[in-house]
Write a structure and sequence with these properties.
The protein is mainly beta. The protein is built from three helices and 16 strands. The chain has two domains: about 90 residues, no CATH class; about 120 residues, PK beta-barrel domain-like (M1 Pyruvate Kinase, Domain 3), CATH 2.40.33.20.
Amino acid sequence: MVADPNGKFVTGRTYPQLVLVGAEPSDDGVTLSAPGRADLFVPNGAFDTPIESTVWGDQFQAWQGAAEADAWLSAFLGSPVRFLWTGAETARRVKVDPAVPLSFADGYPLLLIGQSSLDDLSARIGKPVSMSRFRPNLVVAGAEAFAEDGWKRIRIGDVVFRIEKPCERCVFTTVDPETGSKSLNQEPLRTLATYRRTPAGVIFGQNVIAENSGELVPGMSISILE
């Protein structure tokens, strides 16, 4: 996670160009990449100092100490930031289910969106919208638009997922993942707000929790259990 000097999370909401940073994980670290910057390998061993980190209202221990990565990211963003690691095992948990570990994500470990839901949005806007604007982990094809709104439990392969709650969307969706700049017309959030607004906010996608472990492979079929 990228954080400010006090350990508070930093995202593309504040620094849109952050979406241009790539992070390729491996067993012993992560390789950072960005336009105009030489790739940087950051070993897990560089994170040697605990820090109290903050994501929204959650405070939990993470790890800092990767000074080279701190400088690399700070130079790219033009502002002092730190690069944090959860550690081999995260200390954070999902609020609604303390048994479920959670890394630096907003509030849930996984996000599911139906491809037909994105197609519906693109048709309303009048041009294709990239799924990467919404940053899902799971994309489902073959169902009707927003069918995922009515799902409670599903199975993919051997893994059963519980659909917890809709995902409220923010200005981050207006950041173009290809250019790292915000849309001047506030799309796609503006169009979403015309037909996906609820008392909780503008929703698109579903937050999900895996009830067991297993391997997922693209192309697996989905069973609607409930």
